[in-house]
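Forwarding these from the shared drive since the link keeps breaking.
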Amino acid sequence: MSEHVIIPIHSSWRQVICWWARQPWSPNPLLRKSDRFEALLRLVAVAAVIVAVPVAGALGTAAYTESAAQIHTENVTKHRTNAVLTEDPAKVATYEYHARVRWDDNGVRGTAVVQVPRGVRADAQITIWLGQDGAPTTEPRKPAAAAMTGIGVGVLVLVSTWLVGWSMVRGIGWLLDVRRSARWAYEWRQFSRPIREDRQ
């Protein structure tokens, strides 16, 4: 008496086998050229996404290094000094006030219209930043800004690559589906025509 042994295939292994059977290198005769091309396109997209990870890391690191050097150069050429408002501030935009100030920086005097904090009045003392030429300039950027720049570049490269890959796969897949549907409709018309002729 022979016994039949049934070996169950786990669902995950079944999915792997089905996936393997649909790849371009599969000898499955039921695979159409469009199926093989679409599978190959998906593999290329996956490879591009994987390659994009170290590329994004390298570009992000380069952007961080360049931004950090630029911030360091800017910060070296800037210094702060105390200034006194010579007039009441004027509102130029929402939450933005400008006023004329004067300063004495190591014997070098100057005046300029600069942005001042909200709520200050004439004769109030504020801190301003001067550039290498002695003119008011913006506050130095913090070193953390370089890290944010590097992270932003890396994320932008990754997201852009993923979106392009996804759009390409979806778009070409849709075009192939349209072509396959048209082919199916044509073949069904060819198949059903003799049947209608036989009934007449």
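-- next protein --
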Amino acid sequence: MSQAAGARLVDTAAIVEEFATTPSRISEWHRDRATTGFPDVHHTEGRKRFWEHDLVAAFFAAKADSRNTRTLPASVLEADPGELLTAAEVTALLGYKNASSVYWYLRNLPGYFPEPDETIDGMRWRRGTIVAWVQSRPGKGRHAGSTRTVKPLPKVSAAGDPDELLGVPEAAALLGFSSTPSFSSSLSQGNLPELAEPESLDVAGGRPRKGWRRATILAAASRLGISTTKRRPAGGSELLGAEEAATILGYSSAASFNGALFRGRLPELEEPDAVEAQPGGRGKPQKKWTRKRLEKLAAARSGS
């Protein structure tokens, strides 16, 4: 495919961010592009694929136009808008293949998909909430100049009365989640067994809210390996991960640095200065070293 002069190229991550979709759906559309109309890849760099932005935007605009010519079935519009739906029922209403898209939206695009109306026994949405979202959703993704409003999580200290009851926002903040939807998604999927049963239910305002003791939340953090304090080595030296370590030591990438470390070529760094869990307990804990230690090793290697 020829590229027009100055044409903007986008990879999968950029398409996901701008057009509010998922990597799996992009792969499906591209695989079936003969029927879906998704554009061909412009070029690849390793495993990364790049497309011309204008062609991708035209694809989503066409989908939006097609979607806007249809209306929700009368059976959906006439049903009780207050009826609570499970993630599986929401998935069926939206025509998705499985609930993974809903969970992905909640985890990775906070503020895009509506938060559940209730979370007492798993996540539940009122039918009217989903219908309103479908009818107001433009379908063209999030373009430059548009914003999603995400309510910030409160600042919560691990220090305090261990028996104090904390709600969903406070629990999400203590456990390192980026938003209450991502916390609720993880809770619904059974990733936080310590919090499966709330220790309190506050129905003030007509909407039940879960609560847990601070000690219970900290127990979940401990199991996940999440540090709830900002600990740093003596002297306050900055901690750096594999990517920064690779740059200081002259490796081409974090992968090559980790490979050398795994093969025993960096015995000076076998014991890290800290091991930090990723937010929400997702992914492997990351090894970190002080900048001073890395720079000292780099100086020794260059002088040898």
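The longest strand covers residues 48-52. The two ends are 49 Å apart (CA to CA).

- D.
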